[in-house]
Write a structure and sequence with these properties.
The complex is a heterodimer of chains A (about 180) and B (about 525).
Chain A lengths: L3 H9 L3 H23 L2 H18 L9 H23 L10 H11 L3 H10 L4 H12 L4 H8 L3 H21 L8
Helix pairs in contact in A: 1-2, 2-3, 2-4, 2-7, 3-4, 4-8, 7-9, 8-9
Chain B lengths: L3 H68 L5 H21 L5 H20 L5 H5 L2 H37 L5 H28 L19 E2 L9 H8 L9 E6 L4 H7 L6 E2 L5 E12 L8 E7 L2 E8 L12 E5 L15 H4 L2 E10 L6 E10 L8 E5 L5 E5 L8 H9 L26 E5 L6 E6 L5 E7 L8 E6 L4 E5 L2 E5 L3 H13 L1
Antiparallel strand pairs in B: 1-17, 2-4, 2-7, 3-4, 4-5, 5-6, 8-9, 9-10, 10-11, 12-13, 13-14, 14-15, 15-16, 16-17
The chains are: A mainly alpha (about 180), B alpha+beta (about 525).
Chain lengths: ~180, ~525
């Protein structure tokens, strides 16, 4: 498996497998990230597909100024926000009936693996979307503050503040749930 | 949850579908372009080749038509009535079907009916062709309809409504019973259309009900006059350094002190008459503020003191020689009716504190001071308490906030705002009605005053954004004396102050009235 940038170059030059490789590499994490924005795993999966369809159609230029993953997640965020607007405008947000908790749990098990981290992720998912996003990007995807700022269209300083507040909120939730935790 | 292969299949399937759809649309456009072009060429060719012949032919045929019309003058009034009935029924059906109140369409139907009745009743114009050819009547009817609607909009709606009814009544003597009923229905539809149109028109009329007193220092009725001590510190100074203070006048406030020494508390804050609420906050109404020349040990010598109702005093800031603030004597004020907190220089305002993310847009703007054009994709936020109709905040890639206020850009709703933003061409230039201020809350000199230009060269409004994103000031001017007599402070919660000749009139104005005020300023 090559890295995303070279796979993308292959796709641009006509090799469809390039996009397939990117999907295999990044789609799981992307779904969880989008889920932190839209709070619905089914919609998140649809939006993930939409992200790749848009990439396939428009073939946006990847300049290499940031890591490929950062670039990809920034597109994902933009698409997710667009889709949210769409849903809010047409009020066709799928009902809770479509929300399949087992899907999210399966994905967490396969992608995050570590049980403690899964519990942490579940706690994060009840935070407000900004907090949820920033914590997911920093602590689960391993993005730096700078990269997170690039994805979320914030300044680095803002991201730091956001992380701080998010951790405070998370701490409160974990305490309410009776978790014992180490300092993040 | 799909597995990887299913995801890839799904993605490529959607990709193929979109691609096919794109190609199909492209082909349709091309075909339409080609066919319309070819059709136009054929028509042009026909006209070019046989234009003279056709015209000659039509000219030659025209006298025959006249002769036929002349012959039909003997048609009986019953026949005219029958024709009229047909037309009326047809138009009635049309009118009822198109109840979306296109007043013009309805008026045409009415005009046709009326014209037919007139012709059959008087028997002056018994040409069926003439009755069936409604173009002159249509023009007349349209004009009349316009006149009626206009009159209705100015407040004479009830007087005009019977006009439609009388049209229906006049029709009845020459109509069969069923037709009369239908005509009545049509007349009712006309009435409804007129009423609806009148209401719509009234709603779009400029609001003239609100007229602030612009030439008199007498307080306008129904406003609360706030006493302001201005002997020791001028409005100018306060506005320059403590613009945000204006936010609190006349408001119930809660406050709590931070980093304030005990001696200061002991000397200058009394709680003997404070109102203590169950949650422990103290609420006061600010009544005046003044410069304090303190001499107490350890106290700054130059302070601005704010007095609250039922409270001896509460100092704010220290002046220093370099005209900066000594933030050791800072305290926070929290407004009772909002969560807005005006923070000190160490605080950071986050987007979530600006308001709600309502979309993203590609924006470009010209900074009025530097002429610098900046464009890019921005996240657009509503501002707490301010309708997006008036102002939005946009966050750029550097995390700076820009505030846009545009009196022409007035979306009807947030959805409407989305639609407009989605156009990706929301562009402000130096002649547009906007202001923008790179958001930097911690510097006094970050205030920006930008000019709003209007088509009317005699009208100019300058806006000032508080350095703490608290309120917008509009300095109405006649084009000559900026910082003139009228200052509007438009607050985050939509309330508005009017400063008139140095006096403050606190207008407890809701956001709906803010629009009136904007209208007033713009139109006057």
């Amino acid at each position: 498996m090559d890295n995303g940038a070279s796979s993308y170059r292959r796709f641009i030059s006509g090799d469809k497998n390039g996009l397939g490789d990117i999907v295999r590499e990044y789609s799981d994490g992307m779904i969880l990230y989008i889920n932190s924005i839209v709070q619905n795993i089914c919609i998140a999966e649809e939006i993930m597909e939409e992200v790749f369809v848009e990439i396939a159609l428009k073939k946006p230029k990847y300049s290499g100024k940031s890591s490929f993953k950062t670039w990809l997640y920034a597109i994902a965020r933009h698409t997710a926000l667009d889709q949210l607007k769409h849903y809010s405008r047409f009020s066709d947000l799928p009902s809770d009936d479509m929300y399949d908790l087992s899907d999210e749990q399966d994905l967490e098990k396969s992608y995050i693996r570590d049980e403690q981290k899964i519990q942490l992720h579940q706690a994060i998912s009840v935070l407000n979307p900004d907090y949820s996003q920033v914590l997911y990007l920093v602590y689960f995807e391993g993005f730096s503050y700078n990269e997170t700022a690039g994805i979320m269209k914030r300044s680095e300083k803002q991201v730091k503040n956001l992380v701080y507040r998010a951790k405070q909120a998370l701490k409160k939730i974990l305490e309410e749930r009776g978790f014992e935790y180490e300092e993040l | 949850m799909k597995n990887y292969d299913e995801r890839i299949d799904s993605i490529f399937r959607k990709y193929e579908e979109r691609l096919a759809e794109k190609k199909r649309r492209s082909a349709i456009i091309k075909r339409a372009a080609v066919s319309s072009g070819a059709g136009a060429a054929v028509l042009l060719g026909v006209w070019f080749v046989s234009g003279d012949t056709l015209r000659n032919s039509m000219d030659n045929n025209y006298p025959d038509t006249v002769v036929e019309n002349t012959e039909t003058t003997a048609v009986t009034s019953e026949a005219v009535s029958a024709v009229t009935k047909d037309i009326t029924e047809e138009k009635t059906t049309t009118t009822v079907r198109t109840r979306k109140t296109e007043a013009k369409t309805t008026a045409v139907g009415e005009a046709r009916t009326t014209a037919a009745v007139r012709s059959s009743g008087t028997k002056e114009a018994g040409h069926p062709q003439q009755t069936a050819s409604p173009s002159p009547q249509r023009t007349e009817a349209a004009e009349r309809s316009t006149a009626v609607v206009r009159t209705t909009a100015t407040g004479a709606a009830p007087a005009n409504i019977p006009t439609a009814t009388s049209a229906g009544t006049a029709t009845r003597p020459v109509q069969p019973a069923t037709s009369a009923k239908q005509t009545t229905t049509a007349a009712h539809a006309v009435t409804t259309a007129r009423q609806t149109t009148a209401i719509a028109h009234v709603m779009t009329q400029p609001v003239t009900a609100f007229v602030p007193p612009v030439t008199s220092t007498v307080p306008p009725p129904n406003v609360e006059v706030i006493n302001r001590e201005t002997d020791e510190i001028t409005n100018e100074v306060v506005r320059e350094y403590f613009g945000e203070i204006d936010l609190f006048k006349g408001r119930k406030l809660s406050w709590y002190a931070e980093n304030v020494s005990e001696s200061v508390k002991g000397d200058y804050i009394t709680d003997g008459s404070q109102t203590r609420t169950p949650n422990g906050k103290h609420y006061f109404t600010m009544v005046k503020y003044y410069r304090y020349n303190g001499t107490h040990e350890g106290m700054p010598e130059d302070l601005v003191v704010v007095e609250f109702e039922d409270c001896d005093g509460l100092f704010l800031y220290e002046y220093t020689e370099d005209e900066s603030f000594n933030w050791d004597y800072y305290y926070q004020l929290r407004m009772e009716d909002s969560d807005v907190v005006y923070k000190n220089r160490d605080a950071e305002v986050d987007a979530s504190e600006i308001g709600e993310l309502i979309g993203s847009a590609f924006l470009s703007y010209t900074h009025n001071f530097t002429g610098k054009v900046t464009e890019g994709s921005y996240d657009v936020y509503s501002i707490s308490g301010i309708s997006p109709e008036y102002a939005v905040a946009a966050c750029d890639d550097n995390g700076r906030y820009h505030f846009y206020c545009n009196n022409e850009f007035r979306p009807a709703s947030v959805e409407d705002l989305f639609e407009k933003l989605d156009l990706n061409d929301l562009t402000f230039d130096e002649t547009a009605n906007f202001f923008n201020t790179p958001f930097s809350q911690h510097k006094v000199d970050s205030d920006r005053i930008n000019e709003i230009l209007f088509n009317d060269p005699n009208l100019s409004i300058k806006t000032k954004l508080s350095r703490k994103n608290a309120y917008i000031q509009l300095f109405a001017s006649n084009g000559h004396d900026f910082m003139g007599d009228i200052i509007f402070n438009i607050y985050q919660n939509g309330e508005i102050d009017l400063e008139l000749n140095g006096n403050n009139y606190y207008l407890r104005t809701l956001s709906s009235r803010a629009e009136e005020l904007f209208s007033y300023v713009i139109e006057n």
